[in-house]
Amino acid sequence: QVQLVESGGGWVQAGGSLRLSCTASGRTLSDMGWFRQAPGKEREFVAGVGWSGHSTVYSDSVKGRYIISRDNAKNTVYLQMNGLKPEDTAVYYCARGSMNPSEYEYDYWGQGTQVTVSS
Predict the structure, then answer these.
(1) 103 and 51 Cβ atoms separated by less than 8 Å
(2) Burial class (CB in 10 A: 0-12, 13-18, 19+), 26
(3) pLDDT digits over 45-103, tens only?
(4) Which of 21, 5, 33, 6 is nearest to 81 (CA)?
């Protein structure tokens, strides 16, 4: 069993920054991803990182603003979010199993953390 717990969400003004963390317990070494779901919209892929941390992938909507990283010694994956926009408002989820956009490649999900960006 794997448990994923996200933290670091909150409220921020447009242009600000937040850093999300996702701490895992159990069988943890794996590729990891971040997704988000805005009200009334489908969940979408945000970023993924390979198990070593050397490979990363980003959606076009966050490329150049977000940075995904990981610290395997701490079983934690991070999502540094800079230049936040109101359209980044969503519940953010981390997931284990892949670094690709397809949700079907992930086997464990966190409970989500709310990010709200005001204009």
Answers:
(1) no
(2) exposed
(3) 999 999 999 999 999 999 999 999 999 999 999 999 999 999 999 999 999 999 999 99
(4) 21
Q: Looking at the chain, how many residues does it have?
A: 119
Residue 24's SS3 state is: strand
Which residue in the block uniquely carries the two structure tokens 């994956």? 77
What kind and span of H or E run contains 116? Answer: strand 113-118
Q: What whole-number distance in Å separates Cα of residue 64 and Cα of residue 111? A: 26
How do residues 2-24 score in pLDDT, each as one tens digit? 999 999 999 999 999 999 999 99
Cα–Cα dist 58/66, whole Å = 8
Q: How far is Cα 41 from Cα 50, in angstroms, rounded to an integer?
A: 27
Using CA atoms, how far apart are residues 33 and 74, in angstroms rounded to an integer?
17
DSSP string, 32-58: EEEEEE-TTS--EEEEEE-TTSS-EEE
pLDDT for 21: 98
